[in-house]
Amino acid sequence: MCGIVGYVGSVRERSDAGDLDGEYCALDVVIEGLRRLEYRGYDSAGVAVVADGTVQSRKKAGKLANLIAELEEHPLPSTLTGIGHTRWATHGGPTDANAHPHLADEGRLAVIHNGIIENYAELKQELLAKGVKFASETDTEVAAALIGDLYRGAADGDITKAMQLAAQRLEGAFTLLAVHAEQPGVVVAARRNSPLVVGLGDGENFLGSDVSGFIDHTRRAVELGQDQIVTITPDSFAITDFYGRPAQGKEFEVSWDAASAEKGGFPSFMEKEIHDQPAAVHDTLLGRSDPRGRLILDELRIDPAELKQVNKIIVLACGTAAYAGMVAKYAIENWCRIPTEVELAHEFRYRDPIVDKNTLVVSISQSGETMDTLMAVRYAREQGAKTVSICNTNGSTIPRESDAVLYTHAGPEIAVASTKAFLAQITAAYLLGLYLAQLRGNIFSGQIKDVLADLNKIPEKIQTVLDTTGPLRELARSMKDEKSVLFLGRNVGYPVALEGALKLKEIAYLHAEGFAAGELKHGPIALIDAGQPVFVVVPSPRGRDSLHSKVVSNIQEVRARGARTLVIAEEGDEAVREYAEHVVYVPETPPLLMPLLTTVPLQIFAAELAAAKGFDVDQPRNLAKSVTVE
Ligand code: M6R
């Protein structure tokens, strides 16, 4: 959940010299990296540099801006070795004392950490018995003290060796970075169950929780494996396992640049990412079918014979990604006739799920680092299931540990509230469903071609929705003092209702609930009182059975009890007009694909309302972009 940056360089003159002290230095690189990684956590931030045989650090509770103000008041020397951290608190509240870096070895060693050290209490007792004193409540300080103790002892003054020995003793999930006053020009890191990428420069090297930590400087990166240690100097990087045996990383080129991670003129990353959605869907479809309308998913490297044997699919994910999974269930069952369950990854892992070699587990994760999802995927693999990951982040852990991956091409998603990743996940899930149907011969090739043609029209239709949001934004602003908003939907509209409610909770801190519209009469209708706003996602009148008329009845039911009905419906659906205080029309599209359009107004509604309340839309309180703890 935290953001981590490390840097070692060898030259001071560069055209992109930073502005902290007028001279290019480690601090510039580290602060810039933290700015890009702040979405991972923003409870506190801190930096440490190695200068003139000392380690010097500054840290501050609150957002990165507080640390920058502190650095202006109490500057650090300009040097070429540094580390930086932005925190999402786990052990100990968000205070200055608990902020990272944590120091050890009498202030000569600085350590930053992402993750949770599960055996920290036991290690702390051991270190206390040796006379070590602690200044914070964190597990990180215990890790720092352990590394410091080993540095002076068994590692004999070798920071890489000290990190290896410490990593052997630590349990849980961690990315740890350390610098030592006696070893300028060296940053050492350890990784277990927590993300870390190396950036390769020319006479300088970088470490980051993800590539955005150094994307301003290089697009050449190395992905580390599980349980590895890496030591970077300005001209080298060396990878070992925790026992010092040489190991390999995987080099790759980052396909996006720094500009893709900028706001591009929008007031927030969330607004920008909502507007990126036509491209996100388009890019996710790109190159995945041939002109005859056949799916080509080369990257899905599971033997087709094995895929034909699949008799159950389990979709595992959390939060918004789980709602994408719910949409996937409707599509996969419809096209492939394979029973499909969707389960929150953290619930799946800790019961006794029935999984075997004929089960296909599909995980969905934007970051590819969500610990709950990762643990569930590992468990499913242990039980013999085949695992496919739908993921937006190249080189992240979940795809690496899955049998196959279908990348979404949404580009970097920075805002904590997921938007474009959601639409890209749904798109990828449709592709997977169609591919399985093609492979197993469940539907005619002509039908697949038709669905692909409809999918290819979606980006333009999303753009139409985006171009006509004026009245919706006005409505959102007028509702900034509401205390509660309800969302109803049926079939694929149900996960859309859940997602609409989640967006509002997340960024506007407003009570919001999503319900299956048919469930209303079984209890939730008691919530309806005069003036209660209710969003209703109405299925297409061209859809199957009586779904449309059932939802129109639901609108009437809540309206009869005084609700303000706010309706999302398909263009031309005049039947809803007389029961709706406000209607947002989206272009006609096949019912199964509707979530790609009906979600968009709900995202805009939440973003506009939260902004009207004066909240930080990109960094909502208590949350972090990437949830790398269980
Ligand atoms: O990175 P992931 O897709 O695995 O993240 C899963 C959830 O934590 C995430 O979707 C979360 O619910 C979002 N903040 C929702 O906007």
Automatic annotation (TrEMBL):
Location of the active site? C2 (nucleophile), K625 (for fru-6p isomerization activity)
Q: Note whether Flavoprotein occurs among the keywords.
A: no
Q: Pfam families of this UniProt entry? A: GATase_6, SIS
Q: Which residues form a coiled coil?
A: none
Q: Where in the cell is it found?
A: Cytoplasm
Q: Tell me which InterPro entries the record gives.
A: GATase_2_dom, GFAT, GFAT_N, GlmS/AgaS_SIS, GlmS/FrlB_SIS, Ntn_hydrolases_N, SIS_dom, SIS_dom_sf
Task: Tell me which GO cellular component terms the UniProt record holds.
Answer: cytosol
- Name the UniProt key words of this record, in alphabetical order: Aminotransferase, Cytoplasm, Glutamine amidotransferase, Repeat, Transferase
What GO molecular-function term can you cite, just one? glutamine-fructose-6-phosphate transaminase (isomerizing) activity
Q: What is its EC number?
A: 2.6.1.16
| UniProt record, GO biological process | carbohydrate metabolic process; fructose 6-phosphate metabolic process; protein N-linked glycosylation; UDP-N-acetylglucosamine metabolic process
Organism superkingdom: Bacteria
| Limits of the Glutamine amidotransferase type-2 domain | 2-235
Q: What is its main location?
A: cytoplasm
Catalysed conversion reaction: D-fructose 6-phosphate + L-glutamine = D-glucosamine 6-phosphate + L-glutamate
Subunit: Homodimer.
Question: Could you tell me what this protein does?
Answer: Catalyzes the first step in hexosamine metabolism, converting fructose-6P into glucosamine-6P using glutamine as a nitrogen source.
What is the official name of this protein in its record? Glutamine--fructose-6-phosphate aminotransferase [isomerizing]
The protein's organism comes out as Sinomonas humi
